[in-house]
């Protein structure tokens, strides 16, 4: 009988060990059903960006050629010239120069400037297509973060002038835009 009691006691102990082991697993599994982590929120606040026209693109008064096509040009720096043909500028041309735009915003921020490749100037139903050039399509605003910075963009252009180009006072809108990168 002693041996029978011993076997029964071992069976009970083994059973309790199994229950204890399962209880330990259950509590460990229960402890791993939830966890937490922390993320940091952040934001950098900067001034709005703006662009202001400070000068118009002016070609002045041009006498059209009588013998061939000429090209009338104003550089990004405002110098004007005529190539080809015998067209000339009048001596009293006013408002001649490159278009100029001032970009303002948060100092030291990278920007992109969009200048159209060309735009149209019209006089009534007649038109001239101006091909543009500019001083830069991207850069950084001057200054440092926390202070206002600026960036200057100069825009020049050129157009062909033919002997049969209709006379008139031509004008059109040159639209330049800017954005933070």
Descriptive report:
The protein is α+β, with helices and mostly antiparallel strands and 181 residues long. The chain has 2 domains: 1-31; 50-180, Immunoglobulin-like, CATH 2.60.40. 17% of the residues lie in helices and 38% in strands. The protein is built from 1 helix and 12 strands; from the N terminus they run αββββββββββββ. The strands form 3 sheets. Strands 1, 3, 4, 6, 8, 9 and 11 form a 7-stranded antiparallel β-sheet that branches. A 3-stranded antiparallel β-sheet has the order 10-7-12, with no helix packed on it. The protein is elongated, with a radius of gyration of 39 Å. The mean pLDDT is 87.
Could you outline the blueprint of secondary structure elements for this entry?
Blueprint: H1 2-31, E1 50-55, E2 62-63, E3 70-74, E4 80-83, E5 88-89, E6 99-106, E7 110-114, E8 118-123, E9 126-134, E10 138-140, E11 148-161, E12 177-180
Antiparallel strand pairs: 1-6, 2-5, 3-4, 3-11, 6-11, 7-10, 7-12, 8-9, 9-11
The number of distinct β-strands equals: 12
**Biggest sheet record:** 7 strands, antiparallel
Compute the number of structural domains.
Answer: 2
Provide the succession of SSEs: HEEEEEEEEEEEE
Percent helix among the residues? Answer: 10-25%
| Highest CATH level, the class of the largest domain | Mainly Beta
**Could you please say which CATH topology of the largest domain applies here?**
Immunoglobulin-like
Q: How much beta, percentage-wise?
A: 35-45%
Give the overall form.
elongated
